[in-house]
Amino acid sequence: MKEEGTLVRAHDLKPSPSDMYMLYFKGLVSKAETAELLAGFAIAILDQDENLLFQMKGPLHGSDVITDLEAELMALKLGLTRAVSMGITHLSICCNHDEIFELVMGRSAPALLMDDVQRIRQQLTSTIPVLVTDQNHQASFVTKLAMEAIDSEITIRMSSMTCSICLNNNFKAEDILISSLLCGHRFCKECVKRYIEVKLLQGGVPRCPYYQCESTLTLSSCASLLITPRLQEMWEERIKEESIPMADRVYCPNTNCSSLMSKTELSKYTIQGWCCCVKCTIPFCINCKVPWHDNMSCNDYKRLMGTNLTTEDRKLNLLANRLMWRQCEKCKHMIERSEGCIHVTCRFHHHILNHFN
Asked: What is stated as this protein's family in its record (predicted)?
């Protein structure tokens, strides 16, 4: 973590070793979805008459700053270090964070960062933890400074941001969407919106569009894109589809439904192959994946349908033969190779080679 704050001497006063001084500190983590995970800090040291001696603000750099608590502890560590360097020996540590106050008081199991805090405290003659409210003027002051530090860092980062899809780098912060807090890749909202729609229509679950990045996009992280109810429903369906193993997937044969279910889910309601769709309740055969064939075995039904294809089935077979469509042996979906080599992957990532020779 690199200390990069601006130090301002408000009063050129030499601290007295016998006086009590007050340390106010604040660590914040940015929750904005338009920027990377950023953290900022601010500290203010005052004398017993509340004259401001020092104030400092700046970003907290480093992957170890990931929570508000850790940011607060780093701000406290910086404040104590500054107080020691100023020659202060008596200090009131003003906390407006209950958990930090408990840690400083020693009433809570210490975090790893607290080891550094306690070591620095030992260099002072006395330190007194004081719990203050957010309404406290000085606490509000350092919070405002910490927010300014984060805003400044966002402005700096924005000047070098480029959408990884359209390569545009001339946009406002509100036009940027960060795909995931884990990867930090940034894109134009419109680019991500179009990508999500295409990905869902192709039958996939949207992930970070960046090349070879596997970070997952979520509905909540894309809330600002105003995804339509239809796409939301499709997204939830794709997530459910991906969570069910291929061999366990069952689709309702009703053309007006096609709801996704799992064999495990249906097994408790299945009687000798007969079961009902959990959505439309129409009965079907779980073995043949077709509407229920009453008083007929599965083999008899397949023989009958093999010689008595419906008009729609005949048209589909003719079209498939003419356009050289092939059926994936595993997922049974029809696949078209419009161009490229014979190595084709279906929407469920099964590889198909020989069918297109």
From this structure: Belongs to the RBR family. Ariadne subfamily.
